[in-house]
Amino acid sequence: MQFKFTTAGESHGKALVAIVEGVPYGLAIEKAKIDHELKRRQHGYGRGGRMKIESDAVEILSGVRHGRSIGSPIALMIKNRDFVHWQDVMNVEPPDDEPANPRVVTRPRPGHADLAGGQKFGARDLRDVLERASARETAARVAAGAVAKQLLAAFGIEILSHVIKLGSVQAVPLWRPWEEIAAIPDDSPLRCADATSEREMIRLIDEAKADGDTLGGVFEVAISGVPAGLGSHTSWEEKLDGRFARALMSVQAVKAVEIGEGVANSGRRGSEAHDEIFFEQSADSSQQSADEGVRDKFTRRTNRAGGVEGGITNGEEIRLRGYMKPISTLRKPLASVDIDTKEPSEAAFERSDITAVPAAGVIAEAMAAVVLADEMRRKFGGDSIDEMRRNYDAYIAQLSEY
Ligand code: EPS
To answer: Which of 234, 255, 281, 304 has its C-alpha lying 20 to 30 A from 52's C-alpha?
Structure first.
C-alpha cells in the first residue's frame, strides 16, 4: 500500500484541492489539525498583502466519516478568498466579452517559471503558467501533509521545522536540540530558535522591503520518533535520502537540500564526519524493566548523518535542510523582455512576499510527512489502522531483540 497525494488548483482560481490516498481505515482525522497546519504556513514576518486576504481553512469532501477515515481517497478543498477579485480573469468558461482588465502577463520574471513555461506550452499569456507555478499550491500540500502527520502521530512520530538562516543572517549555533525547536511558539515572527538572530533577520527583511527587494534562506525539518529501518539501501529509488531530497526540492524556490550535516561533512575527515556506534544497557535489565519497555539499545553521541544511513532510517532524529532562493517577484523589478514586442522591459509586478522561509519550512514538514507516511504504509501495510499497528508492534518487538 502506498500513501500518496495529488493537488489541483490555480493561485487565483476558485479553490485548491488535494486528493490523499493510502490512509488506512479507522484513523482519527481532525479538521482542526489540518487548519492548524494551514495557519502555520500562512504565518511569518515578510509575507505580502495576499496573506491578509486569505485565511485558509479546509473542507473535507470525502473519505472521512464521523471523524474517522473509511479507507477511501480523502478529498480536501481550500477556497481561495481572493477569487472574488479574479472571477473574470480566471473564468472557466470562455468569456462573453473581453474582461475590462484581462491582466495578461507578457513580461516574464527572472527566476520564476514564466518564460520557460511560456516557451514550453507556447502560451502567449504567461498567466497560464504562473497561476499553477505559484507557491499558493503549497496550501494543498500542507493539507495533505496534515493528514500524513495524523497517521504518523498515531505511531509517535512528530515533525517540526525552524529557520536557521535568513538572507545573510545565520542562527548561532546552527544546530538546536529538539526541545528548543519544539519550544518556539507558533506566533513567533520567523520560527527561529535564537532571539538575537531573529531580530537581525527582521531588520534585514525591513531593509529588503524598503529597497523593493526579496530574500531567501535556510530552514531545517526535524523528525522524532522514527523507528530504524524505513527506506532501503537495495535500489536507488528506495533510498530514503533520495526520496526526501526530491520531496523537498519540489517545493517552490527550494534549490538545494541537505541531509544532516551533509554540506559540512564533505569538508571533514571521516573521523569527524560519522556518528560512532555504542550500545547502552538499561540500568536494570531485569524482566520487569523489559516489561516496562526499558530496553538495551544502540546509541549515537552525534547525529551528523541526520538520521539516515545507506538510505535507511537509523533510529536517530531525522534532520533535513532546505535552501530557498529569494522570491522572484520584486517590487523593484529585474530586467526582462516583453514576449510580444521583444523590447527590453521590466518584469511584471503586482504584489509580493519579501520572504517566505518560515512558510517553506512548514511546507517541507508536510512533504517529509508524506514521504514517511508512505514508508510506514509500505513497511507495515494493513487495511486498517489496527492491522497496521499490529504489524508495527511486531516489528518494534523484533527490533528490541536485535
Ligand atoms: C506567489 C505570489 C503571491 C504569494 C503567493 C505565491 O501571491 P499573489 O500573486 O496573489 O500576491 O502570496 O503565495 C500565496 C498566495 C500563498 O498562499 O502562499 C507566487 O507567485 O508564487
So the answer is: 255
C-alpha span between 11 and 22 (Å, rounded): 27
Q: Give nearest CA residue, ligand 1 atom 20.
A: 134
Whether the bond into 326 is cis, omega within 30 of 0: no
Q: Are 313 and 333 in contact (CB under 8 A)?
A: no
| Beta carbon of 353 within 6 Å of any ligand 1 atom | yes
Q: Which residues contact 397 (CB under 8 A, 6 or more apart)?
A: none
136 lines ligand 1 (CB under 6 A): yes
Supply the pLDDT for residue 400. 92
Which parts of the chain have pLDDT scores under 50? none
Neighbours of 36 (CB within 10 A): 13
For atom 8 of ligand 1, the residue with the nearest CA is 50
- pLDDT value at position 101? 84
Mark residue 153 as left, alpha or beta (left: phi above 0; alpha: psi -120 to 50; beta: remaining).
alpha
**Per-residue pLDDT tens over the stretch 158-178:** 999 999 999 999 999 999 999
Listed by start position, the domains of the chain span: 4-95+103-260+305-400
Q: How far is the CA of 320 from the centre of ligand 1 (A)?
A: 25
Give the bridge partners for 18, in sequence order: 7, 76
Count of Cβ atoms closer than 10 Å to residue 138 Cβ: 24
CATH classification for the domain delimited by 4-95+103-260+305-400, as one of 3.40.190.10, 3.40.50.720, 3.60.150.10, 3.30.70.360: 3.60.150.10
The alpha-helical segments, DSSP class H, found in 302-382 are 357-380
| Cα 204 from Cα 3, distance rounded (Å) | 40
Taken in order 289, 292, 296, 301, the sign of the CA dihedral is negative
The CB-side HSE value for 381 (13 A sphere, CA atoms) comes to: 4
Q: Is the CB of 48 under 6 A from ligand 1?
A: yes
Task: Establish whether residue 50 lines the binding site of ligand 1, counting it when its CB lies within 6 angstroms of any ligand atom.
Answer: yes
**5 to each of 144, 161, 374, how far by Cα in Å?**
7, 22, 10
Backbone phi, psi, residue 183, to 5°: -80, -10
pTM score: 0.96
